Amino acid sequence: MKELYATTMINEGGRSGTSYAEDQSLSLKIAPPGSKLADVTNPEQLFAAGYSACFNSALDLIKRQKKLKNASTIKVTVKLMEQASFDYVLAVEIEGHIEGLAVEEAQELLEVTHTVCPYSKATMGNINVTIKAV
């Protein structure tokens, strides 16, 4: 296996702290989900941002293979779920829209993308992920 890219983020203070890139290219204030603070994020938002970008890029690969140039939008919702006291898991909903395609055709492409996307591969069997064309 050939490494294409690696990055490192460091966190101090957990969900009430700061996460920053080792190379100082990014620094983010972190707060618990639902906090009404300005200029903060949380791990769930970061995961949703990464997953949506990765999934849409993987979809671009699938579209190129099928010689499609239709624009696509991917919306990822990450849910923090409590199964029992002190037992937390994530769940993900992916909604995708591909301009000019029927919902059924878009759904097929999204399902194929789910087998290609590195985030999907990393989460497969670990968290509940639903995929829906809109």
Automatic annotation (TrEMBL):
InterPro entries: KH_dom-like_a/b, OHR, OsmC/Ohr_fam, OsmC/Ohrsf. It comes from the Bacteria. It holds the Pfam family OsmC. NCBIfam families: organ_hyd_perox. Belongs to the OsmC/Ohr family. This is Organic hydroperoxide resistance protein. The lineage of its organism: Bacteria, Bacillati, Bacillota, Bacilli, Bacillales.
